[in-house]
UniProtKB/TrEMBL annotation, chain A:
Chain coiled-coil ranges: none
PANTHER family membership: BETA-HEXOSAMINIDASE, BETA-HEXOSAMINIDASE A
Organism: Plectus sambesii
GO CC terms, sorted: lysosome; membrane
Name of the molecule in the record: Beta-hexosaminidase
EC number: 3.2.1.52
Origin: domain of life: Eukaryota
Catalytic activities: Hydrolysis of terminal non-reducing N-acetyl-D-hexosamine residues in N-acetyl-beta-D-hexosaminides
Occurrences of domain Beta-hexosaminidase eukaryotic type N-terminal (ranges): 39-161
TrEMBL record, chain B:
Organism: Plectus sambesii
InterPro entries in the record: Beta_hexosaminidase_sua/sub (IPR025705), GH (IPR017853), Glyco_hydro_20_cat (IPR015883)
Keyword GTP-binding listed: no
Record's keyword terms, sorted: Glycoprotein, Glycosidase, Hydrolase, Signal
UniProt name for this protein: Beta-hexosaminidase A
Function: Responsible for the degradation of GM2 gangliosides, and a variety of other molecules containing terminal N-acetyl hexosamines. Degrades chitotriose.
Top-tier EC class: hydrolase
Length: 556, 366
């Protein structure tokens, strides 16, 4: 139970370290159990040759005839990932990798070939992420892909074949292998919540980098909610002026643009969520008359406003103008429209509200507030289409559970306490003919002590329910959700990684080859240590362990 | 990382860094007397505290008014010791006789005590604090495999009139270890996990480190019993901060098991029913962060500001610090202050914000 934190020890890296004892104390795996040069997530088809290449910094190049900014930028990134120079917060790594530079390399370049032309826009659902990677024992190493997105995935895999034997950062080895790879699901996302706690731009960018290392392809940006409204709208500037935590807790449109572009270069979609009609308390600060007054059961007005008021034309005018802007700022074909947990506010803010009561009367809804919610969505979804023709949406499952007609919408499944219940939710949603993606088992914000947690994330399967082939085909993937109640930039990196890596493999890899967490652990352990070596605070998740190269990332 | 943590401890007016230095999994302390202990027992050469590192920590702490009390936990929790010191640990066997992992010191050999004397001679000089933590926890289960099931040791127990009672062998071990410490320096005093004293080892002046109890009531009962038996006591039972759970556990969150349930602010080491004399024997307590799931990637956010709740409980007037609700705005300001000073101290109390957001120092190409 020692606290193994490496105080900055002196630089001399020894070549022989004693390969550690291979026993297990207690129920934990051996602390030093990790693979070398094995990718995560597991490629669908990978066979290793019995050979390790030697690489040398300064004597390696990426080559291509393909003209594309995405590939140009990727080559720069992956050159640095393969051969990191001294990092600014670690005074222990030698700037000149002496021995490494002198090594006689057996592999000096990777040629990249891509069929389809360079996309000018952002990636969308349906992007082709397949690739073929050949790193033979002798001869040229080649990466081939139909689209540039596949090439990005292949470059990441290539970078993961590299390893430092015995943790010697001066020695660069690479596994020779033949890989044919593609993702199991087309939608593989990470949800970050920037309303409960603000996350500064550099934190979002760093996490987008780590998402790319894990082959996630969607950043689900839950950007606003009850507590704060950090999105700076040009059409309605008061929304953030009055609704953000402070003027230092805001995303300008320029910043958002840079984030969308940063993600694009890494083959990651940015799907924004503007959650309504609930979860909107902060909206009312800058947009008076948008929300309903809430009343207690005795008819007394509370000092609270929540739930969008669907009875006013001004509401619809506001929403149309706002979403016109949002759908320009976020070029993804999909927008997440939220729609969860209205039941929480409905009793006080609709049912007890005289204006809504009158409305329900006029429309013949009787006592059924569900009809008000349905009315909201029916009109809202039409409005979103007017805001941008053909806009597609994702909604939290209850919107579609409540039989709102929205044929192409994707249901984001989040309900269910036990795994069995969560699978039942997936079965029901798909039986009703909806596309679905799963987050219920992947609420990474709800953490627990112990190793069972990571195993649970690894094992959860979005198609793990009993259903027809047609139903299973409606499952588009899932998302690891990191709600922000207890998370900000002080702990987001450690809390998200490598737990989200378990989700990444479940969404990318062949379930038949990834059935056992115990078998996967050494490779996951290597992945965690790889992230650490790249400067990210990927935390220990499976008991006492160590990385060959200890963490020396940003002081945290 | 240890140094950064000492800075935060100083800002919270903590005055003891209890350094649980070695354990079963690894032995990172670079002993000059027994260099093989770390050479064979550390995870890798990069996971070692050299003498210069230790000195740096002790000096850094001193300048902040913080004592460094090191713990070399024996006779259990010693799996890693055996790698560099063959013969130190006893061979262990399951009940069917197949060998299992050594994790317990062999108290029957004289060489054991020669070794311990030499090691502690060094350790007590390297660490200038008057107190040394000798551990002594959780021998019970391991003693079955490693003592009872070991024929040679079983014979020793019978020969010495211990029968089948491994507790008596454990006591025998401490009866030999404590005078060793005494001989090295009469001013040096031990702290031990409570079971050593629960087992009626006679050791006047030794401090009991209380960690047992599933519920808050149980924990206070432990404190009452330990102080009633005449021992000085420090409490950690309610402050196992390594047992994370979702929610604002610094002052709230109430699940059945107190160890897991939080309410760190509430826990009071003198909260039991007892005499003034008993309460005088309560010297304080410690927030614990065992390392099964903790390293440099997550130590600071996991420890702070939850440990700040413990800091106030151990420093301030209990009469003025009854309510976490009342304390929260001040804790919130403090959290933001530590964050502004550059430490990734996490948000402990659901949605919040500080005047400026924390920016981690990532490297970007741009």
């Amino acid at each position: 139970m020692a606290v193994v934190c490496s105080v900055t020890t002196l630089a001399a890296v020894l070549f022989n370290f004693v390969l550690l004892f291979s026993f297990t104390v207690g129920a934990y795996p051996t602390p030093g159990q990790f693979t070398e040069g094995q990718p995560w997530p597991l490629p669908w088809n990978i066979s290793y040759y019995d050979f390790n290449h030697t690489l040398s910094p300064g004597k390696f190049n990426f080559k291509t005839a393909y003209k594309c900014d995405i590939i140009d930028q990727a080559f720069i990134r992956y050159q640095k990932l393969l051969f990191p120079s001294s990092k600014k917060w670690d005074d222990n790594i030698d700037d000149d990798f002496g021995a490494g530079n002198d090594a006689d390399p057996s592999l000096t370049f990777l040629t990249v070939t891509i069929s389809e032309e360079c996309p000018t826009g952002v990636p969308q659902l349906g992007m082709d992420e397949s690739y073929k990677l050949d790193v033979p024992s002798s001869g040229a190493a080649v990466l081939t892909a139909a689209q540039v997105w596949g090439a990005l995935r292949g470059l990441e895999t290539f970078s993961q074949l590299l390893f430092h034997p015995d943790g010697d950062e001066n020695v660069y080895k690479m596994r020779a292998a033949k890989i044919r790879d593609y993702p199991r699901f087309p939608h593989r996302g990470v949800l970050l919540d920037t309303s409960r706690h603000f996350l500064p731009v550099n934190s979002l960018l760093a996490n987008i980098d780590v998402m790319a290392h894990n082959k996630f392809n969607v950043f689900h940006w839950h950007i606003v909610d009850d507590q704060s409204f950090p999105y700076e709208s040009k059409t309605f500037p008061n929304l953030s002026v009055k609704g953000a935590y402070s003027k230092r807790h805001i995303y300008s449109q320029d910043q958002i643009k840079s984030i969308v572009e940063y993600a694009r270069l890494r083959g990651i979609r940015v799907v924004a969520e503007f959650d309504t009609p609930g979860h909107t308390e902060s909206w009312g600060k800058g947009q008076p008359n948008l929300l309903c007054d809430c009343y207690d059961d005795h008819g007394k007005k509370k000092d609270e406003q929540a739930l969008i008021d669907p009875t006013k034309q001004s509401t619809w005018d506001f929403l149309l103008a706002l979403f016109k802007e949002i759908l320009e700022v976020f070029p993804d074909h999909y927008i997440h429209l939220g729609g969860d947990e209205s039941w929480f506010w409905i009793p006080s803010c609709w049912k007890n509200n005289p204006i809504i009561q009158q409305f329900m009367n006029v429309y013949g809804f009787g006592n059924d507030t569900q009809k008000v919610e349905n009315y909201y969505f029916q009109n809202f979804l039409k409005l979103v289409d007017r805001a941008r023709r053909g806009a597609k949406f994702i909604v939290w499952q209850e919107v579609l559970d409540n039989a709102v007609d929205a044929s192409e919408a994707i249901a984001h499944v989040w309900k269910g306490g036990s795994y069995a219940e969560q699978m039942q939710e997936m079965a029901t949603v798909t039986a009703n003919g909806h596309y679905a993606m799963l987050s219920s088992c992947w609420y990474l914000d709800i953490f627990k002590y112990g190793s069972e947690e990571i195993e649970g994330y690894y094992k959860c399967d979005p198609q793990g329910f009993k259903g027809s082939v047609a139903q299973k085909n409606l499952v588009l993937g899932g998302e690891a959700a990191l709600w922000g109640e207890m998370v900000d930039a002080t702990n987001v990196m450690a809390r998200l990684w490598p737990r989200a890596s378990a989700v990444a493999e479940r969404l990318w890899s062949d379930p038949a080859q990834t059935a056992s967490f115990t078998d996967a652990w050494p490779r996951l352990h290597e992945m965690s240590c790889r992230l650490i070596h790249r400067g990210y605070a990927s935390q220990p998740v499976n008991g006492p362990s160590f990385c060959p190269i200890p963490y020396s990332g940003p002081p945290s | 990382m240890l140094l950064r943590n000492l800075d935060l401890m100083a800002q919270n007016k903590f005055n003891v860094f209890h350094w649980h230095m070695v354990d079963s999994e690894s032995f990172p302390y670079d002993s000059t007397t027994f260099p093989n202990l770390a050479a064979k027992g550390a995870y890798t050469p990069k996971h070692i505290y050299r003498q210069a590192d230790v000195k740096r920590v002790v000096d850094f702490a001193r300048l902040r008014g913080i004592r460094v009390v090191v713990e070399f936990d024996t006779p259990g929790h010693t799996g890693a010791w055996g790698l560099g010191q063959p013969g130190l640990l006893s061979d262990c066997f399951t009940s069917s006789g197949s060998p299992t992992l050594p994790n317990l010191i062999d108290p029957t050999k004289n060489e054991t005590y020669t070794f311990l004397a030499a090691l502690f001679q060094e350790v007590l000089n390297v660490f200038p604090d008057n107190y040394i933590h000798l551990g002594g926890d959780e021998v019970g289960g391991t003693a079955i495999d490693c003592w009872l099931n070991n024929p040679r040791i079983l014979k020793f127990m019978k020969d010495n009139g211990f029968g089948n009672d491994t507790t008596l062998l454990e006591n025998y071990y401490f009866k030999r270890l404590l005078p060793i410490i005494q001989n090295i320096g009469s001013h040096k005093k031990p702290i031990v996990w409570q079971e050593v004293l629960d087992n009626k080892v006679v050791a006047p002046g030794v401090i009991a480190h209380v960690w047992k109890g599933d519920t808050y009531d149980d924990m206070l009962t432990e404190m009452e019993a330990v102080t009633k038996a005449g021992h000085y006591a420090i409490m950690s039972s309610c402050w196992y901060l390594n047992y994370i759970k979702y929610g604002n556990d610094w002052g709230y969150v109430d699940y059945p098991l107190k160890i897991n349930r939080g309410m760190y602010y509430e826990c009071d080491p003198t909260g039991f029913k007892g005499t003034d004399e008993q309460k005088q024997r309560v010297l304080g307590g410690e927030a614990i962060m065992f390392g099964e799931y903790v390293d440099a990637t997550n130590l600071i956010p996991r420890l702070w500001p939850r440990a700040s709740a413990v800091g106030e409980r151990l420093w301030s007037d209990p009469a003025q610090t009854v309510s976490p609700d009342v304390a929260w705005p001040r804790l919130h300001e403090f959290r933001c202050r530590m964050m502004r000073r550059g430490y990734p101290v996490e948000p402990p109390n659901l949605p919040t914000y500080c005047p400026s957001p924390f920016e981690a120092d990532y490297e970007f190409d741009e």
